[in-house]
């Protein structure tokens, strides 16, 4: 009963909902009474550069050209837009088999992605290939906090987190990769070490919130929305965290009409969102930082790309 | 009664929790109508992206239309054996053997994974993608004779495409009546090498059987690439495809 009431009030789409109090002491970049920041996100693009074919359940949805049109429209309406991806950019259409991920990465750079995390399929062509395409064609950072790449070709390329400062408001963003066991062949995962996602998430998020004074902490996760047998997932992780406000998920190809709101370790809300797969949908969350009430509000939309 | 009090307490605490989060909306915060995405006009960015994509699309199309080999007739799948099923299993065995670098006793694929026919006439790379859209990889598994026997029992039950066993299946029980590997009866004391897809090895009903193995190697070779490589080679040797139903799997 408690949970239902909580969800209904916290996660209503369309209406504005308060997320709680945020540190505002760092907000010096504007004198405005409120600041709106729009977060857009995709996940599990799987090399789907063209819209889904006629034979597919998602026929006509997606496609980078359609996505670009919609991104331009949103950017023309909103001043502060951030665009993220939660991994599995690679693998799934002949584009990847033939061009080895170059167009995927180059197109994401053109579309103005601000950061991505790694999915298990991003290892498919080998870590060397991923590193090559990112080094040559990415204008965005790769964020993964729980893979220790020491001694691999990724060392120094992936960062655990990045802080985006929007008119003085700091948005801390970090990434989480999935447990490679049984998913990524050892040969491809190489010397990469997988670290406990919850422990890493809490350390990173607390650092971003407490030390770096971020007003919003976002986790790009490829753990999956919900897994069988209570395995590690966003829904398992979220209640065991503190200091994360939003988990942008992937891996399970979950279409959500609205983010799932859960309570974290200290009873504060944490949102979990995911935007299906193949670029068929674009997740959208608009956060308003209100100086007068010292609260942060959000609204959400699932934007169909077509 | 005690339960009711607890419920009321929970309800009350949830109410206070809500009031904590719920305060008046700031005036400028309204839901934004973005669902009207069809009206998003094309602009500089989408035109740039379309222009970037075009040469990749053209080149992909050219690749997909590349003729690998010719087939004198349409090739279809079926049970207990079929031209297309036999071809697929033979390809798996031959190309897997090359990749592995040692003899393979048996190759198994699944009828469910063969998604369509090969047409009569030209077979293109696009046809290969249609027949095998999944990114399944070849795996090599070393098995004891005893496990191999269970694999053959599985084969008899399911009548999946195979290359390597001469198999006679009992019509009434779906159990193997006769099975020879490389012309010899199964030797329970020998070890055997099986090539199959990672799907069959890990996710199918055969997975539980081959889990008990003496060695498991992912060959990092997509089934689709193995098929395309095989067909391309046949074409380059001016051969047409001519798979037959050779009686390797029969029901009696």
Write a brief caption for the model:
Chain A is of the alpha/beta class. In chain A, 24% of the residues lie in helices and 25% in strands. In chain B, a hairpin with a 6-residue loop joins strand 6 (165-169) and strand 7.
What does this structure look like?
The complex is a heterodimer of chains A (306) and B (252). By secondary structure, chain A is of the alpha/beta class. Chain A has a single domain, classed as 4-Layer Sandwich (Purple Acid Phosphatase, chain A, domain 2). Chain A is 24% helix and 25% strand. Chain A is built from eight helices and 14 strands. In chain A, the strands form three sheets. In chain A, strands 1-14-13-2-3-4 form a six-stranded mixed sheet, with helices on one face. A six-stranded mixed sheet of chain A has the order 6-7-9-10-12-11. A two-stranded antiparallel sheet of chain A has the order 5-8. With 252 residues, chain B is of the alpha+beta class. Chain B has one domain: 5'-Nucleotidase, C-terminal domain (5'-nucleotidase,  domain 2), CATH 3.90.780.10. Helices cover 41% and strands 21% of the residues of chain B. Chain B is built from eight helices and eleven strands. Chain B has helices at residues 2-21, 44-64, 83-100, 125-131, 145-158, 198-203, 207-210, 223-236, and strands spanning 67-71, 106-108, 121-124, 137-144, 162-163, 165-169, 176-181, 184-185, 191-197, 215-222, 249-251. The longest helix of chain B is centred in the first third of the chain and has 21 residues, at 44-64. Chain B is elongated and about 70 Å long. Mean pLDDT of chain B is 87; it is low at 1-35. The interface between A and B is large, with 61 and 47 residues.
Helices and strands, with pairings:
The complex is a heterodimer of chains A (306) and B (252).
Chain A (H helix, E strand, L loop, with lengths): L1 H9 L6 E5 L12 E9 L21 H14 L3 E5 L8 H6 L2 H9 L4 E2 L10 H11 L9 E2 L12 E6 L2 E8 L9 H4 L3 E2 L2 H15 L4 E6 L12 H4 L8 E3 L11 E4 L5 E5 L7 E10 L4 E10 L2
Parallel strand pairs in A: 2-3, 3-4, 7-9, 9-10, 10-12
Antiparallel strand pairs in A: 1-14, 2-13, 5-8, 6-7, 11-12, 13-14
Chain B lengths: L1 H20 L22 H21 L2 E5 L11 H18 L5 E3 L12 E4 H7 L5 E8 H14 L3 E2 L1 E5 L6 E6 L2 E2 L5 E7 H6 L3 H4 L4 E8 H14 L12 E3 L1
Parallel strand pairs in B: 2-9, 6-11
Antiparallel strand pairs in B: 1-3, 2-5, 4-9, 4-10, 6-7, 7-8
Helix pairs in contact in B: 3-8
């Amino acid at each position: 009963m408690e949970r239902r009431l909580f969800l209904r009030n916290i996660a209503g789409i369309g209406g504005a909902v308060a997320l709680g109090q945020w540190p505002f002491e760092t907000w010096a970049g504007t004198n405005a009474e409120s600041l709106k920041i729009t977060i857009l996100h995709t996940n599990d693009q799987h090399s789907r550069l063209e819209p889904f074919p006629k034979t597919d359940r998602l026929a006509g949805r997606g496609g980078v050209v359609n996505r670009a049109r919609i991104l331009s429209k949103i950017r023309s309406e909103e001043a502060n837009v951030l665009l993220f991806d939660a991994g599995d950019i690679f693998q799934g259409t002949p584009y990847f088999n033939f061009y080895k991920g170059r167009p995927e990465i180059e197109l994401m750079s053109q579309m103005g992605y601000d950061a991505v995390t790694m999915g298990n399929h991003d290892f498919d062509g080998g870590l060397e290939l991923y590193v090559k395409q990112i080094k040559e064609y990415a204008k965005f950072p790769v964020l993964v906090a729980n893979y220790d790449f020491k001694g691999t070709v990724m060392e120094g390329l992936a960062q655990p987190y990045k802080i985006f400062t929007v008119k003085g408001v700091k948005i801390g963003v970090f990434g989480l990769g999935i447990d490679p066991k049984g998913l990524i062949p050892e040969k491809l995962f190489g010397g990469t070490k997988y670290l406990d996602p919850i422990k890493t998430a809490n350390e990173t998020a607390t650092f971003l919130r407490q030390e770096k004074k971020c007003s919003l902490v976002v986790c790009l996760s490829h753990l999956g929305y919900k897994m069988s047998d209570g395995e590690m997932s966003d829904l398992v992780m979220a209640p065991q965290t503190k200091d994360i406000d939003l988990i942008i998920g992937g891996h399970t190809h979950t279409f959500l009409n609205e983010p799932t709101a859960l309570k974290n370790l200290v009873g504060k809300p944490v949102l979990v969102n995911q935007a299906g797969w193949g670029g068929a949908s674009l997740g959208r969350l608009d956060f308003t930082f209100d100086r007068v009430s010292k609260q942060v509000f959000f609204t959400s939309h699932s934007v169909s790309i077509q | 009664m005690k339960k009711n009090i607890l419920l009321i307490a929970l309800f009350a605490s949830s109410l206070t929790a809500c009031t904590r989060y719920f305060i008046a909306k700031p005036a400028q915060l309204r839901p934004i109508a973005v669902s009207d995405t069809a009206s998003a006009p094309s602009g500089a960015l989408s035109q740039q992206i379309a222009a970037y994509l075009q040469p990749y699309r053209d080149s992909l199309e050219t690749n997909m239309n590349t003729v690998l080999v010719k087939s004198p007739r349409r090739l279809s799948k079926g049970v207990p054996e079929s031209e297309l099923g036999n071809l697929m299993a033979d390809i798996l065995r031959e190309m897997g053997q090359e990749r592995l670098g040692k003899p393979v006793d048996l190759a198994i694929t699944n009828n469910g994974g063969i998604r369509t026919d090969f047409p009569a006439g030209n077979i293109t790379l696009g046809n290969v993608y249609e027949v095998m859209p999944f990114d399944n990889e070849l795996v090599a598994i070393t098995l004891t004779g005893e496990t191999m026997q269970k694999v053959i029992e599985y084969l008899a039950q399911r009548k999946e495409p195979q290359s390597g066993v001469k198999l006679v299946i009992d019509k009434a029980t779906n159990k193997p009546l006769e099975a020879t590997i490389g012309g010899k009866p199964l030797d329970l004391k020998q070890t055997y090498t099986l090539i199959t897809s990672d799907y069959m090895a890990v996710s199918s009903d055969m997975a539980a059987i081959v889990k008990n193995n003496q060695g498991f190697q992912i060959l990092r070779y997509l089934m689709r690439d193995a098929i395309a490589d095989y067909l391309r080679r046949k074409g380059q040797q001016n051969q047409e495809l001519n798979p037959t139903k050779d009686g390797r799997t029969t029901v009696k």
